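I hope you will forgive my troubling you with a question about protein structure. Could you please explain, in whatever detail you think fit, how the structure tokens follow from the sequence? Thank you for your consideration; the sequence and its tokens are set out here.
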Amino acid sequence: MESDKKQATRTLDVGEVKAFWDSQAANTGIAPEAVTHRDHQQRLLEIGIAGSYLRPGDRLLDVGCGNGYATALFARKVASVLAVDYSAGMVERARREHAAQANIRWEVQDATSLKVEAGQFDVAMTLRCLINLGSWPAQQEAILQVRDALRVGGLFLMGEGSVQGRAGLNKAREACGLPVMPSVAHNIDFDENDLWPFVKLHFDVVEVRRFGLYDLVSRVIHPLLVQPEEPRYDAKINEVGRVLAERLEGFGELGREFIAVLRRK
């Protein structure tokens, strides 16, 4: 679709995006688990899949840590974590909410200009982080920054949004009489036609996990069951969708999000 291609080629005002995340961080009325994403079941799905690749001795780089909700869970599995975010408000909230966790260091850093020693980390991850950068060139630079931070053979757990996945989900929604899901104002999803050729220059692709089954349940079946009411993120059916997506593959073409397991060359 032409509109999907425009989504991948547009640019964002990064200052405005940072201001949005700073405001989210400052809003103490938002529960810690919902600060960066209201769909808690999708967050648990991300955390469960990404966390399964972590080992006790790992040195982890968490790029785009937000308020540290997921970071704190990952830190229990590894030796140490450097958690960075370009939102000073998010880092401040993370330090406050997770002060007791001694193996995490929190820093304000931009993914496009990481200040870390080359080859320092065993694992790096971005969970819905790079889609908040201002352009495809900025996203490419961030991928290179992550590559340089990893040791040779280290893993990059890249959890981001897909233009093709969102288009596939919207096609399914329209076929069922549901409205399309609009693009997110502060996100630039990845056009996979551009992403994978670039990624493969620097990483071996070990696996790509897609959330299509979860999106089918939570974004198609759930709305159809409750219409004309609005679906709720905390509904039991979303939990069922998350459990199914953890255990079963399928419907990848409907997945707005993927987690790519990449090994540094």
